[in-house]
Amino acid sequence: xxxxxxxxxxxxxxxxxxxxxxxxxxxxxxxxxxxxxxxxxxxxxxxxxxxxxxxxxxxxxxxxxxxxxxxxxxxxxxxxxxxxxxxxxxxxxxxxxxxxxxxxxxxxxxxxxxxxxxxxxxxxxxxxxxxxxxxxxxxxxxxxxxxxxxxxxxxxxxxxxxxxxxxxxxxxxxx
Length: 175
Hints:
GO terms for molecular function: protein-disulfide reductase activity. The protein is α/β, with parallel strands linked by helices.
């Protein structure tokens, strides 16, 4: 009797597992399609697949580039906030997200140690210089040859209020 039950249950369990995997993957693709549709309607889309830094910094707007990946829990936690802020700050600030799991070339030239990591730039394309009162663990990267400040970054999760504080210092008014 036990073998008979296993012969019936095994194909059913395999079917359920395969069906669950298919459903999960299909759902993931739907979310990505929806995000791409939202991206197409925005002047400055959140999700990027290529990065031309001089062009991005030449737009005359402050810029935040967030590097992350789908497998990263803090990155997933920040995702809704980034989507909201990108929509709210259109035309006043450029906020982009670079998925380095899908598009690893996007990280070339950036000193990434962990994800998420955010890089901030002023509207003139220069690296953001935080005020002395800023206590968010921002790192300044300096060119070894020239000793010139090249990048300002934050490693780890930033909350909405923290991002808005930085945006204000970058000269961007509230939404």
